[in-house]
User: Fold this.
Amino acid sequence: MAYSGIGGQAVMEGVMMKHKDTYAVAVRKPDHEIIVEKKNFHGICKNEILRNMVFIRGIINFIESMALGMSTLTFSASFFEDDDKKKDIFSGDVSSSREQRKKKENIETGLTIALSIVLAVAVFMVLPFYVSLFFQKFVSSKTLVVLIEGALRLLIFFAYILLISQMEDIRRVFMYHGAEHKCINCIEHGLDLTVENVKKSSREHKRCGTSFLFFVVIISILATMFIRADSRLVRLLLRIAIIPLVAGISYEFIRLAGRSEQKLINFLSRPGLWMQKLTTREPDEEMIEVGIASVEAVFDWRSYVETIRKGEEP
Assistant:
């Protein structure tokens, strides 16, 4: 499998695909028309040295992915707002309305990202830590207590995914997530990007965000085992402080996995791929068409596939 450099995510009734500094969001509107918005992505960091620095680039990429993800989700959701809201948006001066809406979206995106990070830290780091303290009354081994804390993190992670997967809207997002993976796998295996070829492709991919989050949890458990301090507060603060480093390490592994077919790398990637069975579903043909439209807006897959067929490096 060849590396294409394409990444993406599922949005509400659509797919976002990104290649280099360009991204496109394709959405299936309520009237079944596919609308595609293509834009250049301006990241949070312009310094190329930092952007290419090992571990640091993972942190930057994670923050940028969250910002872009929230923005594209907001865009896709706008097609499914109530008619009254749409009338409010387009009433009055159009240019003024757009500027105000853009400012509002930027503020909302920033607040949502901040709130998401706080909630994630509280649920996946703080809660398991304090619950694990209860076991200190019965367990003398500090290492075992840390392992219990790690097991609680994994349990919460699994429970969260299983819980949201019961929601109808989320199930459809997971189907579009499957369409995103299948489109990328299709071209990276040298196949023409057609509905039939995409249907035959795998819905699991080693560079998936699900795999990234899974490795964040696993690596945080391993890193926590080396944190030793008498103060509970210090131990908790150190757990929170290592999150950026854990994210950077996880990114480097996912990045390597997406470019390597070594047996060891493939073996280590399997747990993340298994997790994707929960966060992806088989898409229908209309969803696949949306995924294809998003890819074609940002990537010349025909030249890429032709290069693979010639046995050359893409």
